[in-house]
Write a sequence for this structure.
């Protein structure tokens, strides 16, 4: 699948970046994985349940995370709390959450509302990495 080209400096920053993906919608997760691979990143996941996501978060081995807010009946906030306490940047990807609900507890996080272009998720991930480093 071909995605919108990113600026060369953006693609260069994505090369080798390990991106944890939590997404329970199969088509969305496939698209996110494909765009990560196309731009040189390494997808980790996708994790479709909070239980599996928490195991992955505890295991580490990633640079940034993309979290669907709702994973089945659960929400990914426990994982976001753990990522935040560990200093790991993350992006919320949701059709249900509002930024006013997220930015109070997670000021460094980004929100990409569904539907959004998968390239936008990668750009948001890089912006979030910069925010966490500068905080």
């Amino acid at each position: 699948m071909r995605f919108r080209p990113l600026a060369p400096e953006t693609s260069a920053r994505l090369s080798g970046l390990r991106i944890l993906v939590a997404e329970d919608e199969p088509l969305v997760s496939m698209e996110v994985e494909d765009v990560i691979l196309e731009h040189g990143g390494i997808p980790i996941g996708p994790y479709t349940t909070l239980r599996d996501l928490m195991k992955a978060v505890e295991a580490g081995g990633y640079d940034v995370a993309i979290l669907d807010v709702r994973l089945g009946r659960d929400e990914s906030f426990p994982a976001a709390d753990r990522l935040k306490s560990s200093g790991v940047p993350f992006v919320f990807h949701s059709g249900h959450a509002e930024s006013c609900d997220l930015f109070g507890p997670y000021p460094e996080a980004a929100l990409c509302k569904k539907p959004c272009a998968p390239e936008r998720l990668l750009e948001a991930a890089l912006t979030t990495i910069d925010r966490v480093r500068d905080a």
